[in-house]
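Give me the fold.
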Amino acid sequence: MLKKIKTFSVFGMFLLCFLTHFLYNWFPNSLFSIFFPVNESIWEHMKMIASSILLFSIVEYFLYKRFRVSHNNFVLSLFLEISLAIIIFLIIYLPIYRFIGSSFILNIIILFISIYFVNIISFYILSLRPLHKEVLSLVGIILIYILFGIFTYYPPFNDLFFDKMDNKYGINIYEL
């Protein structure tokens, strides 16, 4: 049953990315600026991936409880899913972006691949014996979102943080 839930999660997280992409535009506020993309930069889209994983993990948790699915290391698994999804996406995306440029279809494929692989990793982490890294993992998740907040309001002047569509960095602060 764990494998079925993780398979369901791949598609749930993937579809949730389409919703989280627009949440800040629909409800602009300080809290949403930390969790959802405020512009079209590459970095801001990492929030979309991370928050989709975070939000769908709540659904996962209730499914595990509802179906009495044995699992361990839930928060560790969540931390690794978020961290590795960002890393995997950037490792695949950045070289393609540098050579080919941005392509909506390629972006969607890379997004799906990233979510797929982190759910495979998550499945194995959830299947392991308890590793007692839950508190450390929770701190890691909080630190990721602190970084999202800092880089939303004080982004480095780097291509990763630059919104080419609106010609700006961050959240309406660093217009060129």
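The CA atoms of residues 84 and 161 lie 19 Å apart.
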